[in-house]
Write a structure and sequence with these properties.
- With 208 residues, this protein is of the alpha+beta class.
- It is built from 9 helices and 5 strands.
- Helices cover 47% and strands 11% of the residues.
- The protein is globular.
């Protein structure tokens, strides 16, 4: 089974207060201290589609499981079977939690700055329910809100940052799918200033 959490879904945000001071350096290095979250860069939509497809397979398998933490049972089994296989498995999700990895990658491809993700669950997790942190610009925020409402995800705001959350990872996975489906709308928007030079900054940091 896939856990569901008791959280009220709401939409508490102010577009006028979204952070607008991000730079490539800040996004690459991490502008919020959130448990060693690593910047996902600027992935392409093809990678997003592959990640979401793989994630959907794991979610379906987890839903069929009778274990309280079906997804975590699957991940643990892969890890116990083969360390190399586990590394390859997790690389499909950029080492983010299965269930929120797809939406995190989709948000990055949509040119929003992600800074946190957690599937919550029965293991060692930080959030009380599934959640992804992101800073969009105003126009991208409007698109995301509409998609969040249609998939049963909530929006909270703190310090100019957004937290997208849901009762279950299945809703956040659906949000990731919706973002992928609306990719042309996101691509039509002006590229955020922080995206210019981001890949070069990530390359520079990787050499430290």
């Amino acid at each position: 089974m896939i856990p569901e959490f008791d959280v009220e879904i709401g939409y508490d945000y102010d577009l006028a207060d979204l952070r607008a001071d991000l730079t490539a350096e800040k996004v690459a290095a991490g502008f919020v201290e959130h448990h060693d979250y690593e910047c996902l860069g600027l992935p392409g939509w093809e990678e997003v589609a592959e990640c979401l497809s793989r994630e959907a397979e794991i979610l379906e398998e987890g839903a069929r499981s009778s274990a309280p933490g079906g997804i975590e049972e699957i991940v643990a089994a892969v890890q116990e079977a083969d360390d190399v296989g586990f590394a390859e498995f997790m690389s499909d999700f950029r080492w983010n939690d299965v269930g929120v990895a797809g939406v995190s990658l989709a948000l990055s491809a949509a040119r929003t700055a992600t800074f946190y993700s957690c599937s919550s669950g029965l293991g060692k997790h930080h959030a009380r329910y599934p959640m992804v942190g992101v800073v969009p610009d105003v126009e991208r925020a409007k698109l995301i809100v509409a998609l969040a409402r249609s998939t049963g995800c909530g929006v909270g705001q703190q310090g100019g940052r957004w937290y997208l959350y849901a009762r279950s990872v299945t809703a956040l996975h659906a949000l990731g799918q919706s973002i992928l489906e609306r990719r042309e709308a996101f691509d039509a928007l002006p590229t955020p200033a922080w995206a210019e030079g981001l890949e070069e900054e990530l390359e520079r940091i990787s050499h430290y």
